[in-house]
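Lab notebook page, bench 4
Experiment: in silico fold of construct C2
Operator: M.H.
Input chain length: 83 residues
Purpose: comparison with the prior construct
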Amino acid sequence: MFTTIVPALLALICGAVLTTQVGSNTSLGKSLNNPYIPAAANMVTGLVFTVLLLLIVHKSLRQEAGTTVCAAASRQAPQRMLD
């Protein structure tokens, strides 16, 4: 449940922030007379949040896979002992 709620909430928050980010990037680009600086900041921010989300999802998926493997191994262990 945690693995589906957190990414969905982060996606909603990022979507809501995107509209304000466009306006702030435009005004910052005009005040600096350089549209590339806000664009670079935008890309770095997106990269950081993508890596954080990947780490959260990857860690939780790895934990779920580990419990599945352990549960399957515990079911097979008595059979190995009898063979």
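Observations: The two ends are 38 Å apart (CA to CA). Residues 2-82 form one domain.
Next step: discuss at group meeting.
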